[in-house]
Amino acid sequence: MQQYQVIVIGAGPAGYVCAIRCAQLGFKVACIDKWVNARGKPALGGTCLNVGCIPSKALLDSTHHVHFLRQHAGRHGLKISGLEVDIPTMQKRKDKVVQTLTRGVASLLKKNKVDVFAGAARFLGGQQVHVEQLEGTSQQLQGEHIVIASGSKPSTLPGISIDNEQVLDSTGALNLREVPERLGIIGAGVIGLEMGSVWNRLGSEVIILEALPEFLPAADHTVSKEAARILGKQGLDIRMNCRVEEVQVSGDKVAVSYSLNGAGQLLEVSKLVVAVGRMANTEDLDLDAANIETDQKGFIETDERWQTSAENIYAIGDVVGGAMLAHKGSEEGMALAEQLAGQHAHINYDAVPWVVYTWPEIAWVGKTEQQCKHDGISCRTGEFPFRALGRAHAMDDTDGLFKIVCEQENDRILGAHILGPNASELICEAVVAMESELCAEDLARMVHAHPSLSEGMHEAALATDRRAIHF
Ligand code: FAD
Ligand code: NAD
Fold first, then answer.
1. pLDDT in tens, 235-288
2. Which of 346, 374, 450, 470 is catalytic?
3. In the annotation, is 67 catalytic?
4. What angle do CA 430, 362, 49 make, to 5 degrees?
5. Which of 144, 306, 323, 359 sits a CA distance of 20 to 30 A from 2?
6. Domains of the chain listed by start with CATH number
7. pTM metric for this prediction
8. CA 381 to CA 417: how far, in whole Å?
């Protein structure tokens, strides 16, 4: 039996980052992952690199260019004729990006002297793990500490089975080889909006059925209302308050029966994407063998130090639930490694940024104005539109707004909300401000480059004190 100080199960952004940080801190580390790519080869990087963040952003970037060339290039004086979209080449580029980055993870683990095992891990009891290796042999490992970072997988709805031919999960939606004429999506969450944007930009008629009455309820309402308006104008037909009752596949059509405000409706589409959330990946771990408890939804329960119900066994990333985001998992991986090395480790979960990579992008961190009201926190807000920024005009990209929420009494920044081009990059300033416990006045007094989109943060900070200059 091979002995390790730390065994990490899962090489997604939570697991591989934890393994590397543990190795940097001097531990002898093993990292086990069972992922196999479409060519039947082991691939590291988990959901994020293989079928999540990276391939979705590759397609969003490619199709953003298509949208620009079709809708905006003319205004820049660029006459494009005979534009052809070659989906197989677009998909090949996406696959290449994935391959480059998954190989990158393998070489980072190697460089840091982490022993990688390609195979499925399960608990044997105590501190022991059995690995069924992809090559057909098996191994048993013993670890002083074991970290579960086994991630998540797509959920579906009762009675709907995913065949990834006509009824797709997010992985199927990333791998389409042709543009569906009519694409139905169940769920107007992050995946529904991102995948809906990709195929809508390529010409699909996209209809999204959402159960909730309110669009993107986690975002600030000023931002979510404006985002719904802009995405609707782009062609996403987002229907709220829909209750999906039945899905039937017949021939090359998918029929979705649903009720809208109580009235029965029928939607016929060529492909259907089910994007209703994700669930914990624990089925082949044999958690019972190590007395590891899960909650009612199947996520592994931990305390604030990521310790499970079993001593010296920890869990991080999507498998523990909460914000199912790559960067949240990676931070947990680093913090846990440092904690195991006796260092002080802390994550400020209130300052984890969220980004929806539609265009305009939607990004936020911290509290919304509505949450402040709900929690009885007296707050002020400052808003500033992109259309008042010189740089946004130069870019011909003027949709959206900045909104800063700060505490009424002491001006401390509680949240920031951005709908606009490059919101994913711009939100970083707000994260730094919140982590540094800055006030809106601090941002208002910092020099921001002109012309830049970041001037919108500056102006929104000024606007919390009703002294924005350009609006
Ligand atoms: P995972 O990435 O799921 O990795 C878990 C790993 O554990 C897998 O490689 C799996 O093979 C392995 N594993 C599981 N069980 C075993 C076992 N028994 N033995 C061995 N190995 C095992 N997040 C963002 O922050 N930004 C985005 O833009 C973004 N876009 C996304 C787009 C899509 C389409 C999807 C589906 C998700 C997206 N996410 C995004 C979410 C992000 O991918 C996840 O939050 C992240 O991958 C979670 O990391 P993790 O390491 O916890 O788990
Ligand atoms: P989600 O939780 O973001 O959205 C699911 C949506 O489906 C919700 O709006 C929900 O109300 C709706 N829904 C649930 N049941 C329904 C039903 N029966 N009928 C109609 N609608 C229904 O989940 P997702 O979009 O599947 O994404 C999963 C997770 O992956 C996200 O929570 C996120 O953490 C992660 N992710 C992140 C990014 C990003 O950071 N840019 C991108 C993609 C995925």
1. 999 999 999 999 999 999 999 999 998 899 999 999 999 999 999 999 999 999
2. 450
3. no
4. 95
5. 306
6. 2-154+279-347 (3.50.50.60), 167-276 (3.50.50.60), 351-463 (3.30.390.30)
7. 0.97
8. 11
